[in-house]
Amino acid sequence: MPYTHVQLEPLAEDAWLLRFGETIDLQLNARVHAVAAKLQSSLAKVECVPAYASLLLRLDPLDWLDERGRFSDRRLRDAIDVVMQQASTLETTSREVTIPVCYGGQAGEDLQDVATYTKLSPEEVIARHTRATYRVAMLGFAPGFPYLLGLDPALAMPRRSHPRMRVPPGSVAIGGTQTGIYPQELPGGWQLIGRTPLQLFDPVADMPSLLQPGDCVRFQAMDEHAFRRLA
To answer: Are residues 119 and 198 in the same domain?
Structure first.
């Protein structure tokens, strides 16, 4: 897993950006998470926030002073170079999370539209959506919103031309080549195909977000009765 052409860019006195590339790609995103995991274990005082193809580093500049008492980006770059070389052979283990989903009907108002657009039956859309294994590329847009890579290309569909002002919490949706889950009631333009009764974000929990960057996710279909009972 080579780490050539990785750029380190200053954003603020306490924030730097590691840029791995410019594309949304599973392999590239896996590199981001491998380096994040190694940095967190090797440099305890550095906070890592992964995105598709970049990694935000939050740090205390006082931890990176040179012999003259000045911040040394060279010290930081050298430490990151060492970590990235170690991460190039690191076998990362991902937590696996199963998300139950009630597909179609009131829980997934756009399922038929997705089926029509993709020239598949609603049943085949559900089958393909539950067959895949997804990676949480990053959290964004709203607290706890997971951007999931790994969608079957046959299910890719543009976002709605007119976004909804209110999308129910737990809504599972397709937007372009990705799938995601709305953690709270939010505005949004992704195509709604189902809904989970699980709470994706709890601000008072020890770990507020149910899903974390790098997690592997599988969806499991459930019927409306089971959904209402758990919801």
So the answer is: yes
Can you tell me the distance from the alpha carbon of 7 to that of 56, in angstroms, rounded to the nearest whole number? 12
φ, ψ for residue 52 (rounded to 5)? -55, -55
Phi-psi sector, 181: left (phi>0), alpha (psi -120 to 50), beta: beta
Q: Please check whether residue 202 is in contact with residue 82, taking contact to mean a CB–CB distance below 8 angstroms.
A: no
What is the model's pLDDT at position 88? 64
User: How confident is the model at residue 138, as a pLDDT?
Assistant: 97
**SS3 state of residue 91:** coil
Q: What is residue 159's DSSP assignment?
A: P
Among 39, 63, 87, give the residue marking a domain's end: 87
Domain residues for 109?
96-230
pTM across the whole model: 0.89
How far apart (Å, rounded) are the C-alpha atoms in residues 193 and 123? 11
- Residue 81: in which H helix or E strand, if any? helix 73-87
Domain count, the chain: 2
